[in-house]
């Protein structure tokens, strides 16, 4: 039975953002859902969407780092990891292995301060399996957690922290802010990921007690969203969840804002920073507080767009930075506003602070104009529909609102609260929370540049991990857990059967061509009243002069910066009033103009795109700012281990004289040398309809698209453009180890690979099929199972083929903890050596099951449909090319897999690149068996600990 049943149709009426009531127009937005609550307290929400044969399943538990205690931090996030590993009836590998078999999107999860969620999208015939699996995690899981399991997962979480915090520029920023914004006993004082020390000290009893207190039905929400039969889904929910006992009563957390009794200035010399960064943080209010909506608008107005007050002062007037960021970070019990300014090289942050004060004074005098308030509100409808483009997005929204408010349809109030914000409200929250209030100032500066920090700053206390060989505890993850099984009223060890096989329909693709040469590929899709489109202009960096690297990137950037008849701010305003977004960016192979707009505003949006494309403004001031931004990004890449690995790997793959090895941004020297005439020459020579393709998906038909392009067809004349070919070198004759020194790196970035195949090569897709079990299948892959699950060396590892029109590479990439760099590399080598000969029928069945069944969700979102159109247009594929791929998978055999593996993933003919701490790891890499490692840069000075 259920305690209550609630059937709700969520209807939202959004008023058009005009300042006079007589012009207001109502637009109805709605999500239909049904909610039940089981006797044990579990909330279950059902949302029906028959547009694709898929179902999103999300379990959200109302526990995050805020429910932890000091000294035992990181538990909530640790459980996010543990719940994927095993449960009593799914067995070892748990949901991850099942996800691969059923063609799911991959079991995923996340942890915040206040909740943990587990989610994925699966074909509709696997719904009962997923309900069975989610129930097993909640009611039949904790006995499977043993000391070896806990020890291994601690290492995985530590690697995640090293990757996302310790080895990343400015990675410790939020830690410093949290420690100083919130009192020591406040649950937001520590970070979600916790401390390495707390994780290491966690005992099995600690972990089990945490689970038993918080992972109970009356503290959880289950959402089933998509192609479901609600009546049948309810039966399954009752069958699998009803007998899970209710937990103890959960005491609601009390609202508790941060406290800053006096302004604090703190600094930190960041080993991985190349530019000074100032962050100011003020304590504010929790989520859903009435003031939070005005704070959202305030922070957007102050920093987003050309005429934003902070940008006008810091970017245009003082020229201290290329941009500013401000956001209202709200959580369940408290909130904070953060202003982040990453300044140009060698800029004193005192100058930045002076500029911030001036911008605030200007805002205080002028406030926010009604027109700008309306402009910000205009994007709400587009944002709402965009969030509904996938069943997973809708499910997550329903789960979040139910978890925090008890009302899955709370979005109604959220939107209405935002629409009700007035210019006076925005000024009131500025005066109440920002003006003259105490704050936390953090200055993150490059090592040795303390002088750039704010005056009178104290050094922030951050515990840096030391690289010690053999420091981690040993464990054997293969040991099977022994326990007494949790009783059930029926045999839960029997996995449910599949339901009715979903009917997979390939979207109908239409094609057309304009007289000036533009090719058009489209899919009409009426699920939401949106249109997503792009113009892909072939060439990109491939057309650059080797002495002018970065021209394509700057050309794309300048196309966004106003038009002949509109300044930058006027163009931004025009797009915002339509609730539209348009972005222009360059890649190695093309320049892309991408847009999203409401269907009713499509023609007006396209008219603005036409101006951007055919009548660029060529603003010298904006050009100089773009150059500074590119140089800023290049400087920061110099200290980012991941960026270093990407850039060095490309050079090793293609050779320094091949433009495909070059950074899309160029080099600092090349960008400094580029003039606006270089941009105009690139535009005049290469931006042509003859090499342009438009892809469009949305609630609009072919004739409307073609007729909308008349002015572009008439006004954009074609020119001949020849795109040069840069052949990919042959694979190396023998393997070599290359090492790039980043002193004190907490992780080593690994890039192992070789030149391989082009997209249209006959072996390309078969090779990707072969790679699924090797490293392309997530938790189904051998690389993940052995490096992460078996050894705890890494947070993530994968392998992939990346060909396009030219031959690309086969690449294995990972970040591993520094003190196992050699061991991780040896394990990868061993996996490659044994892959072909050990490949078996079970591997083949898993591969076929995933690659065929996953086609049910291949075209669910508008973005997925756009990617499909791009594949068709770029590689001259049939609209039903997926069926051809299914045939390749169905006919795949073990001998064919072995043939492909032996040919394309030979460990003895590869590049083995390591980016890490040379002092502790360089000499050891000789033991990989490929000779003396080649050092790619000079040994760097050791960084202070």
Blueprint (SSEs and pairs):
Layout: E1 2-15, E2 26-38, E3 43-48, E4 54-61, H1 75-82, E5 86-87, E6 91-92, H2 94-102, E7 108-111, E8 116-123, H3 127-139, H4 147-166, H5 173-181, H6 196-201, H7 204-214, E9 220-226, H8 230-241, E10 264-270, E11 277-283, H9 290-303, H10 309-317, E12 325-330, E13 335-342, H11 349-366, H12 370-378, H13 380-387, H14 391-405, H15 411-419, H16 423-434, E14 440-446, E15 458-459, E16 510-513, E17 519-524, E18 530-538, H17 551-559, H18 568-577, E19 581-586, E20 590-598, H19 602-614, H20 620-637, H21 641-654, H22 668-673, H23 676-686, E21 692-698, H24 702-708, H25 710-715, E22 736-741, E23 747-755, H26 764-776, H27 782-790, E24 794-801, E25 809-817, H28 821-838, H29 841-853, H30 862-875, H31 881-890, H32 894-904, E26 911-916, H33 918-921, E27 934-935
Parallel strand pairs: 3-9, 10-14, 10-15, 17-21, 22-26, 22-27
Antiparallel strand pairs: 1-2, 2-3, 4-8, 4-9, 5-6, 7-8, 11-13, 11-14, 12-13, 16-17, 18-20, 18-21, 19-20, 23-25, 23-26, 24-25
Helix pairs in contact: 1-4, 2-29, 3-8, 9-16, 10-11, 17-23, 26-29, 26-32, 27-28, 28-32
């Amino acid at each position: 039975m259920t305690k209550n049943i609630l059937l709700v149709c969520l209807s939202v009426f959004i008023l058009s953002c005009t300042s006079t009531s007589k012009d207001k127009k109502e637009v109805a937005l709605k999500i239909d859902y049904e909610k039940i609550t089981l006797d044990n307290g579990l909330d279950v929400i059902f949302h029906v969407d028959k547009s694709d044969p898929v179902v999103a399943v999300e379990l959200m538990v109302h526990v995050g780092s805020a429910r932890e205690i000091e000294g035992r931090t990181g538990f909530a996030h640790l459980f996010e990891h543990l719940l994927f590993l095993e449960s009593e009836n799914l067995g070892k590998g748990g949901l991850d292995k099942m996800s691969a078999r059923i063609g799911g999107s991959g079991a995923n999860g996340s942890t915040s301060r206040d909740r943990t969620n587990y989610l994925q999208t699966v074909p509709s015939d696997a719904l009962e399996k997923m309900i069975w699996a989610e129930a097993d995690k909640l009611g039949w899981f904790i006995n499977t957690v043993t000391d070896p399991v806990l020890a291994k997962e601690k290492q995985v979480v530590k690697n995640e922290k090293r990757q996302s915090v310790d080895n990343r520029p400015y990675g410790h920023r939020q830690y410093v802010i949290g420690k100083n914004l919130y009192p020591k006993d406040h649950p937001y004082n520590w970070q979600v990921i916790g401390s390495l020390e707390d994780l290491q000290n966690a005992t099995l009893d600690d972990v089990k007690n945490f689970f038993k207190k918080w992972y109970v039905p009356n503290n959880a929400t289950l959402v089933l969203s998509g192609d479901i039969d609600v009546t049948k889904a309810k039966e399954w929910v009752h069958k699998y969840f009803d007998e899970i006992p209710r937990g103890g009563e959960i005491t609601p957390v009390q609202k508790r804002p941060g406290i800053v009794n006096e302004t604090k200035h703190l600094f930190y010399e960041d080993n991985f920073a190349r530019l000074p960064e100032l962050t100011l943080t003020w304590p504010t209010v929790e989520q859903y507080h009435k003031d939070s909506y005005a704070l959202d608008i305030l922070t957007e107005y102050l920093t987003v767009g050309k005429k934003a007050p902070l940008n006008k002062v810091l970017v245009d007037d003082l020229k201290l930075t290329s941009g500013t960021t401000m956001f209202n970070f709200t959580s369940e019990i408290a909130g904070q506003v953060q202003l982040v300014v990453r300044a140009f090289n060698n800029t004193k942050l005192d100058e930045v602070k002076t500029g911030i004060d001036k911008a605030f004074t200007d805002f205080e005098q002028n406030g926010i104009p009604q027109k700008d308030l309306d402009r910000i509100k205009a994007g709400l409808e587009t944002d709402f529909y965009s969030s509904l483009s996938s069943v997973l997005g809708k499910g997550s929204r329903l789960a979040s609102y139910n978890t925090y408010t008890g009302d899955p349809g709370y979005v109604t109030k959220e939107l209405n609260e935002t629409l009700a914000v007035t210019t006076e409200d925005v000024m009131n929250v500025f005066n109440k929370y920002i003006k003259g209030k105490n704050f936390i100032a953090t200055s993150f500066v490059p090592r040795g540049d303390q002088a750039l920090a704010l005056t009178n700053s104290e050094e922030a206390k951050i515990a840096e991990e030391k690289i010690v060989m053999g420091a981690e505890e040993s464990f054997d993850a293969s040991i099977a857990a022994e326990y007494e099984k949790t009783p059930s009223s029926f045999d839960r060890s029997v996995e449910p059967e599949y339901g009715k096989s979903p009917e997979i329909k390939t979207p109908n693709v239409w094609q057309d061509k304009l007289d000036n040469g533009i090719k058009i590929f489209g899919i009409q899709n009426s699920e939401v009243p949106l249109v997503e489109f792009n113009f892909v202009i072939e060439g990109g960096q491939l057309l650059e002069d080797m002495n002018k690297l970065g021209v394509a990137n700057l050309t794309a950037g300048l196309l966004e910066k106003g038009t002949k008849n509109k300044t930058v701010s006027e163009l931004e305003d025009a797009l915002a009033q339509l609730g539209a977004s348009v972005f222009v960016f360059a890649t190695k192979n093309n320049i892309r103009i991408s847009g999203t707009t409401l269907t009713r505003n499509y023609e007006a949006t396209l008219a603005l795109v036409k101006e951007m494309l055919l009548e660029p403004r060529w603003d010298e001031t904006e050009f100089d700012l773009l150059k500074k931004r590119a140089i800023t990004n290049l400087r920061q890449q110099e200290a980012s281990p991941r960026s270093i690995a990407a850039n060095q790997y490309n050079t090793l793959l293609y050779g320094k004289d091949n433009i495909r090895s070059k950074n899309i941004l160029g080099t600092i020297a090349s960008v400094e040398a580029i003039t606006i005439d270089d941009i105009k020459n690139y535009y005049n020579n290469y931006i042509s309809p003859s090499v342009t393709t438009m892809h469009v998906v949305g609630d609009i038909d072919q004739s409307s698209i073609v007729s909308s392009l008349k002015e572009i067809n008439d006004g954009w004349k074609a020119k001949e453009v020849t795109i040069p070919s840069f052949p990919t070198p042959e694979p190396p004759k023998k393997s070599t180890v290359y090492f790039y020194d980043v002193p004190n790196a907490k992780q080593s970035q690994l890039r192992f690979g070789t030149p391989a195949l082009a997209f249209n090569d006959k072996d390309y897709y078969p090779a990707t099929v072969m790679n699924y079990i090797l490293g392309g299948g997530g938790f189904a892959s051998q690389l993940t199972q052995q490096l992460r699950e078996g050894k705890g060396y890494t947070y993530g590892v994968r392998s992939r083929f990346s060909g396009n029109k030219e031959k690309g590479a086969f690449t294995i990439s990972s970040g591993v903890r520094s003190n196992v760099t050699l061991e991780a590399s040896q394990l990868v080598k061993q996996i490659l050596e044994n892959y072909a000969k050990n490949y078996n029928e079970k591997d083949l069945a898993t591969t076929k099951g995933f690659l065929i069944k996953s086609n049910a969700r291949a075209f669910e979102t508008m973005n997925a449909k756009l990617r499909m159109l791009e594949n068709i247009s770029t590689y001259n594929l049939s609209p039903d090319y997926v069926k051809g791929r299914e045939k390749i998978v169905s006919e795949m055999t073990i001998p064919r897999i072995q043939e492909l593996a032996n040919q394309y993933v030979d460990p003895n003919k590869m590049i083995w690149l390591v980016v890490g701490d040379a002092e502790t790891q360089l000499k050891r890499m000789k033991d990989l068996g490929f000779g003396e490692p080649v050092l790619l840069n000079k040994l760097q000075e050791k960084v202070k600990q």
